[in-house]
Amino acid sequence: MAKNDRYVVMVGNKTIYSGNQRFLAWLVWLAHRYNKAIACDNGIWIVEPSYWLRTGKEK
């Protein structure tokens, strides 16, 4: 059984980082926050991805 990546950082539809290191995901998000990056936590107990870091205003 393959493990899925827990943390994903995206800008729009482009994935910049996907892996299991929360600190590294935060650093990538920090570097790309001016592009309205979104960091998702895809833990196994989460039914839908939850956004734990977000920039910009909601539409």
Question: What key phrases describe this protein's structure?
Answer:
59 residues, alpha+beta, four-stranded antiparallel beta sheet, 1 helix, 4 strands, 34% strand, globular
Describe this structure as you would to a colleague.
By secondary structure, the chain is α+β, with helices and mostly antiparallel strands. It contains one helix and four strands. The chain has one domain (about 5-55). Strand 3 (about 40) and strand 4 (about 50-55) form a beta hairpin. The longest helix has 10 residues, at about 20-30. The protein has one helix at about 20-30, and strands at about 5-10, 15-20, 40, 50-55. Strands 2-1-3-4 form a four-stranded antiparallel β-sheet, with helices on one face. The mean pLDDT is about 80.
Please provide a brief summary of the model.
This protein has one domain (7-54). The chain is built from 1 helix and 4 strands; from the N terminus they run ββαββ. The chain has one helix at residues 22-31; strands at residues 7-11, 14-19, 38-41, 50-54.
